[in-house]
Design brief:
Pfam families: MFS_1 (PF07690). It is a multi-pass membrane protein. Keywords: Membrane, Transmembrane, Transmembrane helix. This is MFS transporter. The longest helix has about 30 residues, at about 285-315. The protein has a single domain (about 55-470), classed as Up-down Bundle (Growth Hormone, Chain: A), CATH 1.20.1250.20. It is globular. Helices cover about 80% and strands about 0% of the residues. By secondary structure, the chain is mainly alpha-helical.
């Protein structure tokens, strides 16, 4: 365990690195994340050496969870075989790139706003434009994921958003920036319905670990984008950042092509499975409760992604490189929590605890803590206090991301996971349309403080809706189509 002296020594070293330049900051971010992981690993040792080993090697855990013999997991062998470790990791990388590319405009926001002369409201419209096409595309992609080849659906989506990212580097004003954001929304709308359709193949006791591909990728995307984007912008400017990000995403299509034979493998007894129509899904009360808390999570996450960089630079006076460091800390904590939550919840369920209770109460408690964390981030003045609340809030964000998708998969079942996730994500991502614009208007008229309080209030509203609307998490029996 890290003692007080060690923490003070590391903190002193931290200050020296902060003053040495950007590479010192990168070292600091890596050191903090490493310290967090070492501390969490030692805490897990109270459950035995084996527990710690599982935590420090999440990839091994993921492989073991998805590939061990079926008899040992009480799950049919064909089900395990349809979700290989390679496919799972590649889906996670796609989700990570999804968030690297969509968040690039936020990392470059201080430079883009100054160069293009955008107000906070104008910038809010540019961020929001992504969701004008992203939300309807989630509905379309959810239906397509249950109907056609997920391989071709995912390939088309990745190709479109990669090109839109690359071309954003050529934009010269608000109109062209909005057009590229609209195109990116079309491509990225495919990712989550398709990914959730694939992860729904996992057995329930391993669903949390499988969804590390989604939750971990979602959390790592902003982290990787912030660190890489900050380094690129410092050396070359904001336009080359978009060129590089778009080109790297296009390269993802090469390994995706190599595993194409694994993607569309039919589920066992798929011809016997009853899938829900959109009408049945929309008439399900728990769908609306899940959509409400998804809206909450999306609003809160995009408040951070879209506005935290600007808040740190414009309201708190941090430099661009300091902003990169602080936002990277947030995303590092989010990534760590995404992995921990998947592993630990699956372990609790494997020991006999109710999947419903484990995931439901975790969501309620963590979102409540996150609401208080958001308020604190907007109020604290010292850097140590800001770091504390950023990390605590990020842990809550990261853990809950996986729950949003694993709970949806539990409720919908594998045959309907695409439709359900499409509807839930579409409704939830309406926050991406309204949130940036509302926040921009508030910032222009009243400053950042009220925007933080509104975000916290929305989080609490989502928690109440979920607690009332989803009293128990169990598979829905869809029955015959009407």
């Amino acid at each position: 365990m890290l003692d007080g002296a060690t923490l003070r020594i590391e903190h002193a070293g931290l200050q020296r690195h902060v003053n040495t330049g950007f590479h010192g900051r990168l070292f600091l971010a890596a050191s903090l994340l490493g310290a967090l992981m070492r501390k969490a690993t030692r805490k897990l040792k109270c459950g035995g050496r084996k527990a710690a080993m599982h935590f420090v090697a999440p990839v091994d855990t993921l492989a073991a969870s998805l590939q061990v013999p079926a008899m040992a997991r009480n799950s049919p062998a064909p089900l395990q075989a349809t979700l290989s470790i390679g496919l799972t990791v590649l889906v996670g990388v796609a989700v990570m790139l999804n968030y690297v590319d969509r968040g690039a405009v936020s990392i470059a926001a201080p430079l883009i706003k100054d160069e293009m002369g955008l107000s906070a409201t104008g910038y809010g419209y540019a961020v929001s434009a992504f969701f004008w096409t992203y939300v309807p595309m989630l509905l379309i992609a959810g239906w397509l994921a249950d109907k056609i080849s997920v391989y071709w659906l995912m390939a088309a989506g990745v190709g479109i958003w990669a090109l839109a990212t690359l071309l954003t580097g050529f934009t010269g004003g608000l109109v062209s920036l909005v057009i590229m954001r609209l195109a990116m929304g079309v491509g990225e709308g495919v990712a989550f319905p398709a990914a959730s359709k694939l992860m729904a193949r996992a057995p329930d006791a391993r669903r949390g670990v499988a969804n590390i591909a989604i939750a971990g990728g979602l959390a790592m995307g902003p982290l990787v984008g912030t660190l890489a984007g900050g380094a690129i912008m410092e050396s070359f400017g904001w336009r080359p950042m978009f060129f590089i990000f778009g080109a790297v995403t296009l390269l993802w299509l090469l390994p995706w092509y190599r595993i194409r034979h694994q993607v569309d493998v039919p589920l066992p007894d798929e011809h016997l499975a009853v899938s829900a129509t959109y009408g049945q899904v929309l008439r399900t009360p728990s769908l609306w409760a899940m959509s409400a808390i998804h809206f909450t999570g999306t609003y809160a996450l995009y408040f951070v992604i879209a506005w935290l960089p600007l808040f740190l630079v414009k309201a708190r006076g941090y430099s661009i490189t300091d902003m990169v460091l602080l936002t990277s800390m947030f995303y590092a904590g989010q990534t760590l929590a995404a992995v921990m939550a998947g592993v630990l919840t699956d372990r609790a369920i494997a020991k006999g605890r109710s999947p419903s209770h484990v995931r439901r109460y975790s969501m309620i408690i963590l979102y409540t803590i996150a609401a208080f964390g958001v308020i604190a981030i907007g109020q604290v003045q010292s850097t140590p206090a800001l770091v504390f609340w950023l990390l605590l809030t990020s842990l809550c964000y990261g853990a809950n991301t996986g729950f949003l998708f694993s709970v949806a998969q539990m409720l919908a079942g594998p045959a309907s996971a695409g439709r359900w996730t499409g509807v839930q994500s579409a409704i939830g991502n309406l926050a991406g349309i309204t949130g940036p614009v509302i926040t921009g208007m508030i910032v222009d008229k009243a400053g950042y403080g009220p925007a933080f309080y509104l975000t916290a209030a929305i989080i609490i509203g989502g928690v109440i809706a979920f607690a009332v609307g989803v009293p128990r998490i169990e598979p829905i029996k869809w029955g015959k189509r009407g």
